[in-house]
Prior knowledge:
enoyl-[acyl-carrier-protein] reductase (NADH) activity; lipid biosynthesis; SDR_fam; alpha/beta; Rossmann fold; globular; fatty acid biosynthesis
Amino acid sequence: MANNLLAGKRGIIFGALNEQSIAWKVAQRCHEEGATFVLSNAPLAMRMGEINKLAEQCNAPIIAADATIVEDLEKVFSGAVEQLGGKIDFVLHSIGMSPNIRKGKHYGELNYDWFQKTLDISALSFHKMLHVAEKQDALNEWGSVVALSYIAAQRAFLDYTDMSQAKAVLESIARSYGQRLGTQKKVRVNTISQSPTKTTAGTGISGFDAFYEYADRLSPLGNAPAEACADYCVSLFSDLTRYVTMQNLMHDGGFSTTGISEAMVEAITHATKEA
């Protein structure tokens, strides 16, 4: 149900690929809540995805950009301000990719050139966005910037490999730039640590289905779906959360603070008996 929480607000949403992606759901919810925004993704991702369909649904212009290239990001922010008719009120960073994961490299055999690419795409791109926004003075006072993270930034998870370090860097950037932009312009910067979600990127990780089921059984509320994450993003873009900044906000159904659940005990007991 729409409540016009974002009426009159302008934004930029990075990373919408297809209907399974969280950024896609965020764009739909922002549109429902009255926002106008620009969509952006890398040219290759745009060819692989369905972003034109989303743009039509949301009446949103598209500005292609490689988020690792500062000059591309400069075009996105200046273009968004021009096309939307004013400074930006919210930004979503929903970008992450590991060549090592795509190539099936285990953590002990990482290709370091690919590792640097993982960090550049998944974390440093966030710093570059905020750097460009600051230099162009593109953000309105009390604006909100959100990046999507994952609990592997704090805990070790098999097969998440170098993305764990990327998410840790991402969260650190949010704290450091949150302090800077908060002092300068009351802009808040946060990350959302989302449940495992069946997106194109998520399901590309080896063993994803098993861990998805594990997290769902362990979480008191179950895994948070992409639609619920979109709702959470809307709340952080709205004026209702003006004093929330520099936080890594857990959106995981309680997974991060649960030791063990009855469902997990029953599953382990059953498996042990069968063995």
